[in-house]
Write a structure and sequence with these properties.
With 74 residues, the protein is an all-alpha fold. It is 76% helix and 0% strand. The longest helix is centred in the first third of the chain and has 19 residues. The mean pLDDT is 84.
Amino acid sequence: MRSLGIVLVFIGVLLLLQQFHPMFISFLYPYSPYIKRAFWGITLISAGLYLSSKRLRRPVLVLYLIYLLINLVV
């Protein structure tokens, strides 16, 4: 539960930074259509990797959360 709170605070900070300083993440704007279109593919691949092995669960979860953050901000 604690890590979920940290992730939510980080998402909030990124969204506020995007509102007040739009140039903060401007280097990702040319790639935003590709990031948005790949959502279901990334979700299915990460779900498959998460369910397939216990050893890969934490890295897959961290990488998927990073992707979701980028998807929300862009």
